[in-house]
Amino acid sequence: MLLRSVVLPVTATSRRDLVERLVQLLVGLFLYGVALGFMVRGGIGVAPWDVLALGLAEQTGLRYGVMTVVVSIVVLLLWIPLRQRVGLGTVLNALLVGPSADLALALIPQPASVWIGAPMFVFGLLLLSFATGLYIAADFGPGPRDGLMTGLVRRTGWAVWLVRTLIEGGVLLIGFLLGGPVGVGTVLFAFGVGPLIGWFLPRITRMREARSQKLGLLRSA
């Protein structure tokens, strides 16, 4: 009973559906980390949470990916007083995105100029939005940061936009003070990620739901 109160149940229309959704989740999280690598290498600024992770990495000497995992774990600890339920996707998000970002940074060369770096950032933003659609549509629970936002909205009764603004604004300020990179890319992310995920997510979700329904019908046939 206690486990059910803190862990989201895993449901599937069939074993094949479960396996396909797990693969989709893992691919989405891997691509999310790769996208972060492209955005960091772009050198024109990064998203607020990455400003924080890079600022902490600068101060501690730890790799960016390692610090991303540390930040995710700290955020998950903040779920406890909010009584948020953790999903498999939540845990894997916290543990896998950072290492895949470090792998991408090890393989992606430093751009020679901003004219190369800026398109790298834009590509990373597009890839991140697609990857977000993949892992959310797999339906294994929210990521650590999204869960923090929804938990605070539920507990405080404040508007989503206000809670998100306060969280990301605070994170951005702390990261900037720690030496994290803030730039044009930070603004592009702030205004671009919402519409891009809004385009990818419904389409991927419809495809996943249709596929899951088909697999469920095949199982019962």
From TrEMBL:
- Give the organism, scientific name: Microbacterium maritypicum
Q: Does the entry feature the keyword Lyase, yes or no? A: no
Which domain of life does the protein's organism represent?
Bacteria
Look up the coiled coil feature and give its residue ranges: none
For this UniProt record, the keywords arranged alphabetically read as follows: Membrane, Transmembrane, Transmembrane helix
Name of one Pfam family that matches = DUF6198
- Name recorded for this polypeptide: Membrane protein
Instruction: Give a yes or no for keyword Transmembrane helix in this entry.
Output: yes
Membrane spanning residue stretches: 21-41, 61-80, 87-108, 114-137, 158-178, 184-201
Q: Which PANTHER family match?
A: INTEGRAL MEMBRANE PROTEIN, INTEGRAL MEMBRANE PROTEIN-RELATED
